[in-house]
Amino acid sequence: MADSLRAIQAPIQQELDTFEHRFREAMRSPVPLLDRITFYIVRRKGKQVRPMFVFLAAQVCGGVTENTYTAAALVELLHTATLVHDDVVDDAYERRGFFSINALWKNKIAVLVGDFLFSRGMLLALRTKQFQLLEIVSDAVEAMAEGELLQIEKARRLDIDEAVYYEVIRQKTASLIAAACKAGAASASSDPEATGRMHSFGEKIGIAFQIRDDLFDFGVDDVGKPLGIDIKEKKMTLPLIYALKQADAATRRKIIHTIRKDSENPARVAEVIDFVRAGGGLDYARQVMLEYRRQAFELLHAFPASPARQSLEELVNYVVEREK
Fold first, then answer.
1. Predicted pLDDT at 3
2. Please, which of 72, 287, 306, 314 could form a disulfide with 51 given CB 3.0 to 4.6 Å?
3. What is the DSSP annotation of 244-303?
4. What is the predicted pLDDT for the residue at 220?
5. Which domains does the chain have, with CATH numbers?
6. Residue 316 in contact with residue 292, Cβ under 8 Å?
């Protein structure tokens, strides 16, 4: 997978190298504690998929500009801020195999670091007068918060149907990938049709990305991830929603009761996983995921062929076919 990522990055490798240096500088602070923490964050950064979407979208829509670097930094700063805050909310002590910020420096400092990253991203856009980019990404952050709260509200009653599920993941997950694609396009082009198409493309990919995550929870491809995490957290994901819809009323009541009352019991969680597998939930979710990918490709192929467009296509496949 590492080799495939390097191949995808080829048309924007120089831009990503420059971005990495600029992003490190954007995280600096004169406060020693904060500077130490942001250095730790930079060192353990992930695959930087969202900046890749920004730069490739810009290339497809006319070429990388100075504003593209601002867009990528803004997206990555706000994404990192949400991850820091998520770890506090979820009492998570690990992120990508490293200790989380709250595990090392406690919740109060982690919340303040997240606040710092949010404000640094916004100031970056304001100081360069990139108001459109700020609006694009701020809309996404608002949607992420609303999606998270909608999911929490529905988890209490376990009454999520497919329509609500798609709305939750469109807001919670797809909105930031859509914003990355739209911000990249807007940094290179003033054509509203192109930026709108890129936003729709990113949204489709974000939904496919989340469905792939849902499948991991049921042991797809034996990736070594602990099974049933979403079930323990009472999250209604697409495979489960579909399997419940196909079941008779008595089975449905039993499974929902198990999730509500016994989600900490590994044996009962295993029963739910078996129920979803047997009920065709995984096959159905895979089909939906691939349909969203098809729709994304349809949108992407409206742009002229280029190495950047090819890399975007391969990045989509990487996101949908990734093993963790």
1. 59
2. 72
3. HHHS-HHHHHHHHHHHHH-TT-HHHHHHHHHHHHHTTHHHHHHHHHHHHHHHHHHHHTTS
4. 53
5. 2-213+280-318 (1.10.600.10)
6. no
What is the pLDDT, as a whole number, of residue 84? 82
* Three-class DSSP category at 1: coil
Q: How far apart are CA 13 and CA 123, in angstroms?
A: 26
Are 160 and 168 contacting, i.e. CB atoms less than 8 angstroms apart?
A: yes
Structure tokens at 81: 């801020």
Q: Residue 155 in contact with residue 93, Cβ under 8 Å?
A: no
Six token digits for residue 281: 């939930």
Distance CA 198, CA 177 (A): 10
308 and 244 Cβ atoms separated by less than 8 Å: no
Inter-CA distances, 257 with 28, 252, 277, Å? 49, 9, 18
Supply the DSSP symbol for 133: H
The strand pair at 98-99 and 94-95 is best described as antiparallel
- Residues sharing a CB contact under 8 Å with residue 61, sequence separation 6 or more, in sequence order: 184, 185, 188, 189, 191, 194, 195, 198, 303
Rg (CA), the chain: 20
CA distance 102 to 174: 26
Distance, CA of 152 to CA of 169 (rounded, Å): 12
Give me the pLDDT at residue 98, please. Answer: 74
Mean pLDDT by runs of 10 across the 324 residues of the chain is: 73 88 82 84 77 93 91 89 80 72 83 87 87 90 89 75 90 93 93 94 94 82 57 84 91 87 82 90 94 95 92 89 69
The helices-and-strands tally (H runs, E runs) of the chain is: 16, 2
What CA–CA distance (Å, rounded) separates 309 from 162?
Answer: 31
